[in-house]
Design a protein that fits this description.
By secondary structure, this protein is α/β, with parallel strands linked by helices. It has helices at 17-28, 44-48, 50-69, 82-93, 96-106, 158-161, 178-189, 209-221, 312-326, 355-358, 376-379, 409-421, 426-431, 443-446; strands at 3-13, 33-37, 110-113, 116-120, 123-126, 129-138, 142-144, 170-174, 193-197, 225-227, 232-238, 241-246, 251-254, 256-259, 263-265, 279-280, 283-284, 297-299, 340-342, 347-352, 365-371, 387-393, 398-406. Helices cover 30% and strands 26% of the residues. Strands 1, 2, 3, 4, 5, 6 and 18 form a seven-stranded mixed sheet that branches. The chain has a five-stranded antiparallel sheet with strand order 19-20-23-22-21, with helices on both faces. It has a four-stranded parallel sheet with strand order 10-9-8-14. Helix 1 packs parallel to helix 9 and helix 3 packs antiparallel against helix 4 (82-93). The protein is globular, with a radius of gyration of 24 Å.
Length: 447
Amino acid sequence: MEKISEKYDAVVIGSGPAGTAAAAAIKAQGQKVALIEEDLWGGTCPNRGCDPKKILYTAVEAKERAKLLAGNGLKAQIDIDWSALMTNKRAYTSGISSATKKGMESSEIKTYTGHAEFVAGTTVKVGECLLEASNFVIATGQRPGLLDIPGKEFLQTSTDFLDLDKMPHDLTIIGGGYVAFELAGIAASAGAQVTVILHNSRPLKAFPQKLVTELVQSLQEHGVEFVFDQDVTQVEQIGAGYRLSGTNDFSQDTNMVFAAVGRQPNVDDLGLTQAGVEYSNQGVIVDRHLRSTAAHIYAIGDAAASPVPKLTPVAGIEAKYVAAQLAGRDDEIDYPKIPTVVFSLPKLAQVGMTENQAQRDEARYQTKNIDLTGWITYKRQHEKKPLVQLIVDKVSEKVVGAACLSMEADEMINYLSVLIGEEYTAKQVKKMIWAYPTTASDLQYIY
């Protein structure tokens, strides 16, 4: 007979950045906390997501910078050793799961390994254990989506890509979002012939059209082939490789095929209906307090259908916010400006109001595209066409949004996030002194 293992003040389901931050913050408030994980402790980001991706990208970035300086002070030919790079990546990821679990336990947070499922509004089952709690926090993250087509079992995902033993001679990526562009850049730099297939003609729709067009052209110069307006309808195994078929007699043979068609929240098998929790294909439906339709059950990070980018720093903000809610705070969550970055060749970044949003009120907002090619930061690195786009509020004369395309875009967008978030005027920015010559010192000229 099953028995209740123990009662808790709060049970957190999922041990990724959102879950571990929530469990730690709730525990710090003196509450009794349990944390459940059915896969890798630490979640997607450090194990098979942003962190290992950045380790791989660091080699790509070094190669790209050397390539830009070839004939301009550098003579060495740099090639990526995929096997050594993967060894480097695995050296980082191999200890993440055990270290995360140990860290939670050292904080006196009770850990459970297994699949969690609600059997009632205040009870979840994990293996043979039943856990009761006054409050629950769902932080189960997302998983890569797959196309529902014949041969879908042959599709690999970003999880597979980030742990490839060997880079194939050629590969095909289906999709037109962040993941597709990032994997394409890494694979092309590692020597693979890459084809990206999109079902429409407008990838990365949230970003400015001009900057996306330049990014596509840059990847094409790196050997990436783009196939636009094409639906893949079937994948077949052909010898040691695969054949993709699509509309209008489309056919593509490839060594490997990866699906980068979005991510799906891990909430569909938690028994949420039995707990009175509503959810959609975007995640658990939450209000401005991150409460679900059951007031004692919260959802954070990638598992929540909240209207913000699904990023690790955002998960941390939501985790601390929910912990404060459990301690008695009752204000609605207020998100800061959230920068996003596509780590491709080059990087594409954005923060604040987007071009699409500004175009809905052109009488108030001005869009400025600035070519940075002649500036010292980019001339010394021989970047081909670095760009910045600013969205300016004509009434306040303040910058309310920005996008960047360059090898420095990740740094530039962080500076712009601060300036936009703090509502700095152009006059204030021009009074600031930055170390020169640096990416930061370029800000006075942008403004």
